[in-house]
Design a protein that fits this description.
By secondary structure, the chain is of the alpha/beta class. It has helices at residues 2-19, 98-108, 130-139, 145-149, 151-167, 169-172, 186-196, 236-244, 271-283, 309-321; strands at 38-51, 61-72, 79-85, 113-117, 174-184, 227-231, 256-262, 287-292, 303-304, 307-308. The protein has an eight-stranded mixed beta sheet, sandwiched between helices. Strands 9-10 form a two-stranded antiparallel sheet.
């Protein structure tokens, strides 16, 4: 009888600790396996951005910026945050792309609150600073200029989304000290920029007079990203800030980064991943690199030792954020 009581106590203790709302460091537990059903709220507006008929900035209009929220069905507070940014070369794509819906459900069912965002694309001709416009005109081939100009409003929007999430942390029961930002291809370019740039970057280059939609983007909120998920992206958006504003944004305090990139990628060459790895090696900031042998662009189905990219990324986040995992 005594052994039965001890066993029962230990089992119930484990169950309660696994299901408790927060751990000793005030962050909700997460799980390796799908544990929760997921609630989905679609098309929540996190702010507005200016659009135009061209990059000559004619006929301005306000564009609502939307995201979907995937919330695990539990009563926990202080849950970790994952922001996902779709790819599409800054020209197309949306939060409805299957890999991002799958990743959103994957992480939310394991304890994260996931925010899957849309942002302005090339066709929206978002407002850009004059120096950005001049830089692209001087350095990009004619056929790529509009695409490269669209990088600025895309990242401006992604950072606005994170500020909105932090401003609404109580509503969603999240802990802004545990932010992960991830994306694929162009979305990874944005994720790296969101994680590594300073709070004023991709925000203060335009004045309120030039773009009054900035007033809808929680300008008083600051944040710090803890981990970055880079699926076949590049550091080009950080390079642009470094060159244009004479900064050196790569340093030992950069967020830990998970890099996955196909060695045969003919869209974003594998060398772009090596460049990111090189910066992290140089500064000593934490990273992990998965070279996806003989894979091209966007190999979402990749697995290593039975673990898919979602599993590998989850384990990286857990380790670098010191989360309690079950």
């Amino acid at each position: 009888m005594r052994n039965f009581l001890i066993t029962s106590f230990l089992c119930s203790n484990f169950f309660l600790s696994a299901q408790s709302a927060i751990t000793k460091d005030s962050i909700a537990n997460v799980f390796l396996k799908a544990t929760y059903d997921v609630d989905i709220e679609t098309d929540l507006i996190y702010g507005f951005g200016l659009g135009h008929d061209s990059f000559k900035m004619t006929n301005p209009r306000k564009i609502p910026l939307k995201l979907d929220v995937y919330t695990p069905k539990n009563d926990f507070k202080n849950r970790p945050i994952l922001v996902l940014i779709h790819g599409g070369g800054f020209k197309n794509g949306s939060k409805s792309k299957p890999p991002f819906i799958e990743l959103s459900n994957f992480f939310s069912s394991r304890g994260w609150v996931v925010f899957n965002i849309n942002y302005r694309l090339t066709k929206d001709y978002g407002k850009i600073p004059g120096e950005w416009n001049d830089f692209v005109d001087a350095n990009s081939p004619l056929e790529r200029r509009n695409q490269h100009k669209a990088v600025y409003p895309a990242i401006r929007d992604a950072k606005a989304a994170v500020r909105w999430i932090v401003a609404n942390k109580n509503k969603f029961g999240v802990n802004p000290n545990y932010i992960t930002v991830g994306g694929g291809s162009a979305g990874a370019v944005s994720a790296i920029a969101v994680g590594i740039s300073e709070n004023d970057d991709y925000k203060s280059e335009l004045s309120i007079k030039e773009d009054n939609t900035l007033l809808t983007t929680n300008l008083n909120i600051s944040f710090k990203v803890k981990t970055i998920l880079d699926f076949w992206g590049s550091k080009s958006a950080i390079d642009a800030i470094n060159i244009l504003y004479k900064k050196e944004l790569f340093n030992k305090n950069n967020p830990a980064i998970f890099i996955a990139h196909g060695t045969d990628d003919d869209v974003v060459p594998y060398n772009r991943a090596l460049e990111i790895e090189g910066e992290y090696k140089k500064t000593g900031a934490p990273y992990i690199m998965y070279s996806l042998d003989k894979k091209g662009h966007g190999p979402w189905g990749y697995a290593e030792k039975g673990l898919g990219l979602g599993d590998l990324a989850l384990r990286f986040i857990v380790k670098k954020q010191a989360l309690e995992v079950y």
